[in-house]
Model the fold of this input.
Amino acid sequence: MNKAVLLLKDGTVFEGELIGSEGETIGEVCFNTGMSGYQEILTDPSYCSQIVVMSSPHIGNYGINKNDVESEKVQVSGFAIKEETLIPSNWRSDESIGEYLKNNNITGIKGIDTRALVSHIRDNGAMNGIISSNDYNINSLLQKLDNSLSMSGLDLAKRVTCVKPYLYSKTNNGKYKVAAIDFGIKKNILRLLEACGCNIMVFPANATYKDILDIQPDGVFLSNGPGDPSAVTYGIKTVKSLLGNIPIFGICLGHQILALALGGSTYKLKFGHRGINHPVKNLSKNKVEITSQNHGFAVDIDSLPKNTFPTHINLNDNTLAGISCPELLAFSVQFHPESSPGPHDSRYLFENFIRIIDDAKKN
Done:
């Protein structure tokens, strides 16, 4: 087995073995608490430029298949696990997690104390790290880390968005026409919108107000995505122009961009929320929903304008998890109602979007 090392920017070192492709990779080190869903996590564009640590000790037992992907490629910068399953056991499996990472040229590390690493990140905050299987000189690796970019102020939506608009819906016989702005959209979002009767035209992140309105959509969807929302100035500008003209539904980065367009502000969380069992309170129903989450930034609840109110609160730390602005036909959530991976408690939000579209058509 080839040796590998993970070095954090604060100088903390974890030594282990290589999993995946030989080489070197840099990214913000973050952790996900899910016991399953690793394939969807690896292919979620929201993890662009991040090294994902799985807190669950045993990863890969059901292998990898061609259907459970959320984008066209592996999006993470690197992957860190405690133990790899070399021989997966599942009838759908096409290859092992190690083979998948290697075939997609992703450098990872295994055999490290991931729970100690997670505890370190919780105590000290998310920070950049480097995984290397060919350079073990700490001073050399620290120098490379010193030259790496911080997540704050980083616009990553432009790296993961589509190049040009495309029609997702295959049948094109839906009742509603929806413009989806791709800041790093997951496939299951598109599938669920289509299941709700939507014909979906997907636009690049830099789409303009005119680009969107030219297709005369019934609603606009703002997708998830990576990076600092305040850096996506072009997206904020477009959403500002759309507000009040058409129903808008945002998820994750889309939620943050909507809040910024409404006049709110965002801030970086210490270590973010990433997992598939995060409790969120629906304030209108006084009901708890278990949600899938993946974000490192949040909207400041005290920055919301008077016409916008909170709809959901994260019960782990009381951060804002959802907003609504009925006056401007807009709402959004910080979590992932499409799950994939995760529970389906909040999928009603897609139906709420359709209801708002119907009401807007009547009026």
